[in-house]
Amino acid sequence: MASPKKLKILFVTSELFPFVKTGGLADVSAALPQMLTELGHEVRILVPKYGAIDVRKYKIHDVVRLKDLSIKIGDKDVVFSVKSSFLPSQKVRVQIYFLDNQEYYGSRKSLYSDPLTGTDYKDNDERFILLSKSVFELIQKLGWVPDIIHCNDWQCGLVPSIFKTANPLDPQHSTFKILFTIHNLSYQGIFNKTTYDKTGLPEELKTDKGLLHDGKFNFMKCGLMYADCINTVSEGYAKEILSDKEIGCGLNSVLNKRKNNLFGLVNGIDYSIWNPETDKFIPKKFTYKNLENKLFNKQVLVERFGLKFDESTPVIGIISRLYDSKGMDLITESFDEMMKLNIQVVMLGTGDRKYHQAFEKLAKKYNSKFSCYLGFNDELAHLIEAGSDIFLMPSKYEPCGLNQMYSLVYGTVPLVRETGGLADTVIKYSEKTENGTGFMFKQYDSAALVKELKRVITTFSDKKAWSKIVKNGMKTDFSWQSSAKKYIELYKTVLNG
Ligand code: GLC
């Protein structure tokens, strides 16, 4: 069957910028549908309406025929509605469906875990069974049948398995194919076996050969087994999850069975939000032609963090979720060594309590050189990208990573670990050829980090070499256009396959 020129895509996600965000998934969930729409396709997004979403600000309204729908979770009849709004893009209109249920989403300010205790909500299984099952109700009630359902991460993991094993739809509503994108394999949605009974999936698949994994119910595995096609967000990570035991997070063999249908497509960045030439959040806009404006931003940044500005001291920015997988253990281990160097460090992030405590302590100990903001602050994120000299991202694994790309276009030279999407998007600097956009270390240990950091600092003091690296990065094109075109190709391959 030839695929239609204009594709209809239902994009299902658990986070969406600017409504709710914990990580890069939110950025991708807005930017990719937007670009696909610009390229002439019809995309609609489905996302839960969490309590943190500002209904008035975003003019979220009821849709009469999508009110009081119901699905079963175990024996419970769960009633929900779907509301509607649009992405706040100037260029195109992308429709959003907000999945509304007070108990599961509306009453929760945060997405996955209780902000007071830091622990996952106990009913996350039911919350995301609802997201997956609502897809079918939505299609049935709308009578709008997409060509592709694009599912993202474990929260949408049940969509493919429910469709393929227990399709709740009429045949005329069942003509779509499903693409499942892995943004991060280390979060799999693992629950006790009893969760299985709430899903309505067939009893005979309640085994490890079927949809259980190591005796547990695993949402990610459900997605991987039954999606028509799978992709992840860089080519490097796509290879690593197949071959590297640690990065495969226990799912190597499941992934290897799907090897012929597993692709790597690197993310882009949204230049309408992340562009130093037009960024509304930063004190002075700049390009590679007027880097003195970047220096002004550096001063504002340093002073905003309560440190003393000195042009010749390199400022290292860190914006991250504070978890082991992001390399926070390397940073805390090497911190004393780092602080011996002539640097200042500014940090923005939230995450593991142990890291909140550790960084608060370090900020006291090194109060003239290190300062941190342990929370979310979008404006501050832009200022850090614009004002820092170096961006540190020592992830243990990184499916794609967006901040290193933001850094590159803001002339902030990344120092990253050579893994996944980081290795795919940063080009190692070579003194010989003067080629490259950043620095990398391979060995995951604090000594390797500090060693490479020293090299970065030495290079920083060579003004000519540094300015070359800065400009190389700023001239790189990370726009979504080329990645979105690859997604379209992939959708078409899936439709024709
Ligand atoms: C996840 C990954 C990150 C990726 C993002 C968007 O947050 O950890 O590497 O860039 O998803 O795909």
Question: What would you note in describing this structure?
Answer:
With 497 residues, the protein is of the alpha/beta class. It has 2 domains: 8-268 and 480-496, Rossmann fold; 292-474, 3-Layer(aba) Sandwich (Rossmann fold), CATH 3.40.50.2000. Helices cover 37% and strands 19% of the residues. The protein contains 18 helices and 19 strands. The strands form 3 sheets. Strands 1, 2, 3, 4, 5, 6, 7, 8, 12 and 13 form a 10-stranded mixed beta sheet that branches. It has a 6-stranded parallel beta sheet with strand order 16-15-14-17-18-19, with helices on both faces. Strand 14, helix 11 and strand 15 form a beta-alpha-beta unit. The longest helix is centred in the first third of the chain and has 19 residues, at 124-142. It is globular and about 65 Å long. The N and C termini lie close together (9 Å). Bound molecules: alpha-D-glucopyranose. Alpha-D-glucopyranose is lined by residues 23-25, 28, 183-184, 233, 267, 398-402, 421.
Highlighted features:
ten-stranded mixed β-sheet; binds alpha-D-glucopyranose; six-stranded parallel β-sheet; alpha/beta; globular; Rossmann fold; 2 domains; 19% strand
CATH topology value of the largest domain = Rossmann fold
Report the sheet with the most strands, covering strand number, pairing sense and barrel closure.
10 strands, mixed
According to DSSP, the number of beta strands is: 19
Fraction of helical residues: 25-40%
In total, the number of domains comes to 2
The secondary structure category is alpha/beta
Total helices: the number is 18
Taking all Cα atoms into account, the compactness measure Rg is 23 Å
How much is the average pLDDT? 96
Bound molecules: alpha-D-glucopyranose
CATH superfamily assignment of the largest domain? Glycogen Phosphorylase B
Under the CATH scheme, the architecture of the largest domain is 3-Layer(aba) Sandwich
Q: In terms of per-residue confidence, which ranges show pLDDT below 50 for 5 or more consecutive residues?
A: none
How much beta, percentage-wise?
A: 15-25%
Which class of the largest domain in CATH terms? Alpha Beta
* Head-to-tail CA distance between termini: 9 Å
Coarse shape: globular
